[in-house]
Amino acid sequence: MNPTGYVSDMINSIPVFGSKIQKEVAGQEHEAAHVAFVQTFRDMLRGLNDFVRKYHAKGLAWNMDGPDYQPVQ
């Protein structure tokens, strides 16, 4: 499986686990914060999926003997 497949699996689990969280906090004082967290977490995973697709499409590449890290400009 390519790396984006793992992130996609996490995104696909959001409806299941997100609804569990929302059911547990329904009617409680901080319900809105929990709902916002689930939505923000989903959005973060979507951004992570885009990042992985762009920069690590074939997986992480390690080069222990390569040059030091240089920021992309």
The parts where pLDDT drops under 50 for at least 5 residues are none
Largest sheet: none
How big a fraction of the residues is strand? under 5%
- How does the overall form come out from the CA principal axes? elongated
Report how far apart the termini are. Answer: 31 Å
The total count of helices amounts to 2
Structural class: mainly alpha
- Count of DSSP strands: 0
Can you give the helix content as a percent range?
A: 55-70%
Arithmetic mean of pLDDT: 87
Rg (C-alpha, Å): 17 Å
Order of helices and strands: HH
How does this structure look, described?
- There is one protein chain.
- The protein is mainly α and 73 residues long.
- Helix content is 64%, strand content 0%.
- It is elongated and about 55 Å long.
- 0% of the residues are buried.
- The model has no long low-confidence stretch (mean pLDDT 87).
Q: Which key terms come to mind for this protein?
A:
73 residues
